[in-house]
Structure formats: C-alpha cells, structure tokens
Amino acid sequence: MAETLEFRIRLRRGALFSLDVAEGVPLSGITALIGPSGGGKTTLLRALAGLERADEATVRFREQTWDAPGIRLAPEDRHVGFVFQNPALFPHLSVAENLRYGARRREVKSYDAIVDALDLGALMTRGVADLSGGEARRVALGRALASNPSVLFLDEPLNGLDTARKAELLPYIGRAVGEAKVPALYVTHSATEVATLADRVLGIAGGRLTGWRSPPARLRAVVTSVTGGLMRVRILGADPGQGADMTLPLVARMGETVGLGLPLDSVLVSTSDPGRSDASLCLPATVMGTSGGLELDVFGQRVTLARGGPHAVGARLWLSVLRVLPRPD
C-alpha cells in the first residue's frame, strides 16, 4: 500500500493570491505537480515542508502529524529532502563537505550509492565555485538524498539550465530517486520532465488543485512533412515496430496528423541509435548531402540542418529532438 501525504491547506498572500487545497497524494515513485507560473506550486511545496506558514493547515505523512490546530512541526523534524530552484549549496564547503552536511542531519553513515547514482565521485574535492550549472544541480540533489529523507520535494530543480543540460540531468534524477527508494513531489513546467520522470501528475492553477492526470504517453509516429521549423507527424499508436518514438506536448489520437514546432537549438545528431532516451522525439535519418548544410532524408522528407559534419552521403544518423512545441493546424 502506497504511503499517503494528506493535506488541507489555506493561506492568503495579500489581495492577489490565495491557496486553498486538500488532497491525499500517494507517495510512491514521483508525483509531478504542474501548472502555470503563479499558480501555487512552489507555495504548496513550501507549506508542506514547513517553510511557509499557512493560515490553516492539517498535514499528515505516514502516521505523523506535521500540521494541525495547535501543532506545527519544525521543518527539520519533517524529514523532508528539499531541492530548490537555486542549488543553494554552501559556497565555503567542498562537494564532499556539502554531502556530509546532509548526511549529518540524520546521522547517515554511508551515502556511497547516491554518489554513484549521481556520478559525483570525480567532483568530491571540488569547490562549489568550480562546478558547472548541471554539476551543481547533481550535488544539490545528492545533498538532499544523503540525509535519507522520508520524502523528497523538488521545486523546478532544472530551472535556468539550457535544453541540452536538462536532458543530460533527467536520467540522473530518475536513477538517484529510484536508488534511494524515496517518494518524491516534483514541481515543473516541462512536459518532457513529466513524461520522463512522473508516475502520476497533479495539476494546480490559481491556488486550487485541478485534478489528477496521466503522464504523456510515449507514442510512435511518422513524419509526413517538414517546412522550416514546422513538422507534421501522423500518430501510429504504441507499436514499437513502427515509426519513431516520441512524447507529445499535446493530446492526439491514433491516425491523427498534428503539427509540431522544432526549436533549432534542441536537435542533436548522433551516429548510433540512442535507444530509449529523454528526447521528445528520436528520428532515424539518412545523409543525402553536405554541400549546403547537413541534408537528410527523414521518412521520405528532406530536412536540412545548418550545421554539417564529417558524414558521408548514405550514412545512417539519428536526430534527437530534445523539445517540441505544439503548433495549431
């Protein structure tokens, strides 16, 4: 039986925003909390963690009461691992010391599995100032997990990173959370992050919960036309023997043709099949020429990328599209 985080929270911030929510969240795997900016995602997460004081709150996790009339458990006593939008690492400590800080909070003796899952071994002696944005995010997640939390809250942990860095980090997040066997609440705007990580999705807008939904399905599709940055694809269903694997940022039915926008900075070219990746779409392609850029045949459609490469005519390539955008017909 899944553990449940049950809450009833009301709070008001001036005349412009109020949060009024009640739900029981099954905390097995990763639950994505999605909604528009200013909708209450971060406020709800902070209120659950005890970082934001609510006007009225009843919160129970497992058999423990976190909030109730006359009761307000301190944040450190809720055993929540919190990953903020900003990594919030201690700048005067090394990576190893940041991780040890997390472990000391709960007297955890070993967190080697987390170091391995996040590939932090080579970073342990570095200072925070020497980390890239992606490395800092991995360390922040590692520090939160090193404390052996009862539940993990992630507030847009990839915020501020470019598309390629986000795609690199998603497998680390899924692997580390799975290794730690900790339930998680994950705040995001990204359909790709939801499709890659989430076991279930809870919507919120205007300070009110909008209900449960399923993560976007991985479907198979074939490209029917490409014009500039617009591609049209026909949905085949889920048969792995047909078409290309993709995650749609919209709802589509089998047999339907939909338009998708292709941001030019979101296409990666590889010489081997990446298999099941975190890309929204992975397309097999054949090199047709390189004189005017990289000219490719994709499902019988001619696609030209501005950047070329040492690829022979007839060579087999794969295009990983990290992000696609819905486009109306």
Automatic annotation (TrEMBL):
InterPro entries given in the database record: AAA+_ATPase, ABC_transporter-like_ATP-bd, ABC_transporter-like_CS, Molybdenum_import_ModC, P-loop_NTPase
Stored PROSITE patterns: ABC_TRANSPORTER_1, ABC_TRANSPORTER_2
Keywords carried by this UniProt record: ATP-binding, Nucleotide-binding
GO molecular function: ATP binding; ATP hydrolysis activity
Domain ABC transporter: 2-231
SMART domains, alphabetized: AAA
Signal peptide as annotated in the record: none
Designated name of the protein: ABC-type molybdate transport system ATPase subunit
